[in-house]
Amino acid sequence: IIISLIFATFLISFSSCDDFLDTLPDNRAELDSEDKIIKLLTSAYPNCSNVMLSEYWSDNIDNHDWNLNYNNFMDDLWHLKDQPNKEGNDTHFRSWERCYQAIASCNEAIQAIEEMGNPSSLKSAKAEALVARAWNHFELATLFTLPYGNSSSGDMGLPYMTKPETTVRPDYTRGTVEEFYQKIEADLEAGLPYIDDALHIQLKFHFNFKAANAFATKFYMTIGKFDKAIECATKVLGNNPAQVLRNWKATLAMDMNNSEQPDAYLDKSNPATLLVSYPISGWSTRGPNNYSTGNKFSHSMLLGKYETLQSRGPWGNHSNIYVRTWWNSNTNKLFHKKIGYYFEYTDPIARTGFQHTGYAHFTTDEVLLYRAEAYILTKQYSKAYEDLTMFITNYTNSQPTFESIISFYEKLPYHHYMEIFVKNDHGIEELDKYPTPKKKLHPPLYQIEYNSEQEWLLHYVLHLRRILLLGEGQRWHDVRRYGITVDRRLVDR
User: Fold this and answer.
1) For residue 382, which of 314, 446, 457, 451 has the smallest C-alpha distance?
2) Residues of the chain with pLDDT under 50
3) Of 425, 248, 233, 460, nearest in space to 336 by CA
4) Residue pair 315/400 in contact by the 8 Å Cβ criterion
C-alpha cells in the first residue's frame, strides 16, 4: 500500500512538473497573432524619463547653496556622482533598465514577425520596432557614451541588442561608439521607409511618419550627415512649415496657474506635437513646473536673466516673446510651463499611486531649428535665415534682419560664469563681466569657421533652441555636440 501511494504521488508530481515547464516563466504572452505583436509595440517606449538627468548635467541648472529644499539624489546628480539609489524613477539605473526593456520588446516583436515569414501586413509594425530600437539605443548613447566625433572609432560603446535574450547572464560585446551609431543608423534606415500612420489609432504615442523623420533629423545632425537631416526635416515640415508650427501667440491668453499651458503643449491634436509620452517620473514636481520642490538645484534667476528666458537677443528683450515666463517672489526659479504633471491613483482611497511627467519628445519647432542649423553648417545661409525668420516671427513679435543677427552675436561677449562687480568713476559698483548665451564652441565632429557668419548664426540657433526646449533635457544634446563647457556655479539668486 505504501509503495503504491509513493508511486501515485510520483506520477502526480511528474504531471505537475510538466504543467509547470509548459508555462512561460515570466507570464509573457505568446506572440502568435498579428494583433498581439502590434499591441506589444506599446512596450517599445520606456516608462521612464532621462530628462532630469540631462537637465542637471547641462548648463541649465545652478546651485542655490543657501537653499535647503533638495534631496541627496539631486545633490549627487548635480555634482556628477554615481547614484547609489536604484529605486528612483529618474535615476541612471532606471534609464538603463527601462531603455533595454523597451529594446527587448522591439526584439521580441521583430523575431515574431520574422518567424511568421515577414508578412506584408506586418511590414509597418516591424518598421516601428526597428525605429524604436534605434531610438532607445540613441537615448542610451546620450547618457552613457562619449559624444560622437573624430575619436569615436576608439571610444567604448554599449551593447547593441538585436536578439531576444534566451540565456542567463549572457556575454555582451560593447564595440566602439562608431560601431554603435552605425547600428543605430542601420535600424533607422531599415525601418524609416515603411512607417505607416495607418497602423495605430493613437498616432502620437508611436513613431508615426513625422515623429520617425524628426528622430532621423536629430540623429543625422548628431553624426554630421547634414543633407540627410535636411531631407528628413523637410518631410516633417512639408512645403509650408508655418502651417504645422505651434501657435505660440495663443499661449499669451492661457492661464499660468493651472495645467492649461502644459496640456496645450502636449495636445495630441496639435500638428506641432509629434510624439508624446507620460512616463513615471518626478521631474514635473522637482523641475521647472513646481514652485518650491528642489529649489536648491534649479534654473536660477541668474540663468534666466542673462542666458535663457529673459536674456536679450536679436528679437529684443523677453517681453517680445509670445511665451510668458513664470516666476514669483517665493521661488528662485524661472520657467515656461510646458512640462505636464499627472497622477495615477492605484489606491483612490489612500490617495497613493504614481507621478507621471507629460513630455513631448519631438516637435515641429525643434525640427525647423535643426534644419536651419544644417543649412548653416553647409553654408546655405539664405535658406537658414528663411527658416530662422519663420521660427522667430512665430515665436516672437520681432523680425530681425540677417545683418542684425550677425551684428548681435559678433558683438556679444563670450560667456563668463561669474558676476564681477567693479566701481566706476563715481564709486558706484557696476557689473563688468556677466554670463551670456554665447559660449565657446569645441565640437568633436563639426568643422566651424570661427569669427564668421557661420559661428554667429550657430550661436543664434543654439540660443533659440535653449530657450525653446528649456526643461526638456534637450540642451544636453547641444552641449555634447558642440563641446560646450558646463560651469558649476553657486548663486545667491
Assistant:
1) 457
2) 1-7, 9-18, 20-25, 27
3) 248
4) yes
Q: What is the SS3 string spanning the chain? A: CHHHHHHHHHHHHHHHHHHHHCCCCCCCCCCCCHHHHHHHHHHHCCCCCCHHHHHHHCCCCEECCCCCCCCHHHHHHHCCCCCCCCCCCCCHHHHHHHHHHHHHHHHHHHHHHHHCCCCHHHHHHHHHHHHHHHHHHHHHHHHHCCCCCCCCCCCECCCCCCCCCCCCCCCCCCCEHHHHHHHHHHHHHHHHHHCCHHHCCCHHHCCCHHHHHHHHHHHHHHCCCHHHHHHHHHHHHCCCHHHCCCCHHHHHHCCCCCCHHHHHHCCCCCCCEEEEECCECCHHHHCCCCCCCCCCEECCHHHHHHCCCCCCECCECHHHECCCCECCCCCCCCECCCCEEEEEEEECCCCEEEEEEEEEEEEHHHHHHHHHHHHHHCCCHHHHHHHHHHHHHHHECCCCCHHHHHHHHHHCCCCCCCCEEEECCCCCEEEEECCCCCCCCCCCCCCCCCCCHHHHHHHHHHHHHHHHCCCCCCHHHHHHHCCCCCCCCECCC
Q: How much is the pLDDT for 2?
A: 47
- CA–CA separation, 93 and 405 (whole Å): 43
Selection from 452, 112, 472, 442 nearest residue 283 by Cα: 472
With beta carbons less than 8 A apart as the criterion, state whether 264 and 270 touch: yes
Within 8 A by CB and 6+ apart from 113, the residues are 37, 119, 122, 125, 126, 129
Residue type, 89: N
What the block records as the C-alpha cell of 492 is: 545667491
Using the structure block, give the residue that is written with the C-alpha cell 506584408.
120
pLDDT score for 325: 85
Instruction: Give the residue among 249, 319, 323, 318 at the shortest CA–CA distance from 288.
Output: 323
Grid cell listed for 127? 518598421
Separation between Cα atoms, residue 149 and residue 263, nearest integer Å: 38
In 3D space, the residue among 53, 10, 465, 27 whose CA is nearest the CA of residue 287 turns out to be 53
pLDDT digit string, tens, across residues 32-63: 788 999 999 999 999 989 999 999 999 999 98
Which residues 6+ apart lie within 8 Å of 339 measured at CB?
A: 262, 283, 284, 287, 288, 289, 357, 358, 359, 471, 472
What Å distances lie between residue 19 and 13, 22, 25, 32, CA to CA?
A: 10, 5, 12, 20
pTM tops 0.85: yes
